[in-house]
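Most newcomers find our protein records easier to grasp once they have seen one. Each record describes a single protein and holds just a pair of labelled lines. A learned vocabulary of local backbone shapes supplies the integers on the structure line. Nothing more is needed to start thinking about how sequence determines fold. The record below serves as our worked example for the rest of this section.
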Amino acid sequence: MQIGDTYEVKATVTDEITAQAAGSGTLRVFGTPFLVGMMETAGVAYMSRELPEGKSTVGTMVMAEHTSPTPVGMDVTVRVTVTHISENGKMVDFDMEAFDETGPVGRGRHQRAIVTIDRFMDKCVGKLAEAGKPSDY
């Protein structure tokens, strides 16, 4: 991983990824929750290429602007670019650009943290115990 690296994900807008389907609006256009999801997917896919066994990543911050509508049937591409890596290498920041076949549709920032899966899940499941709830993990 290094600053300046990029990674892209693409999708064709279908009825399943519209604002109407997500409940984030009433219109049959590419939904903002799916734009954010594609941003996270790109970050996950980029970082997963170099993770050792027993490690994963989690999103710690998302900021997104959805600046232009995309209708059903058009393709959307989300590109993330690494802008910062923490000194210990565990936190990675990305800038995000999104565009359809006619131009820009969004931009944002995203941060992911590298975690040890077992330790992370132990902490997560511990919250169930603390709340007095059963665990199915």
In short: The two ends are 32 Å apart (CA to CA). The beta strands are 6-12, 55-66, 75-85, 91-100, 103-116. The first strand starts at residue 6 and ends at 12.
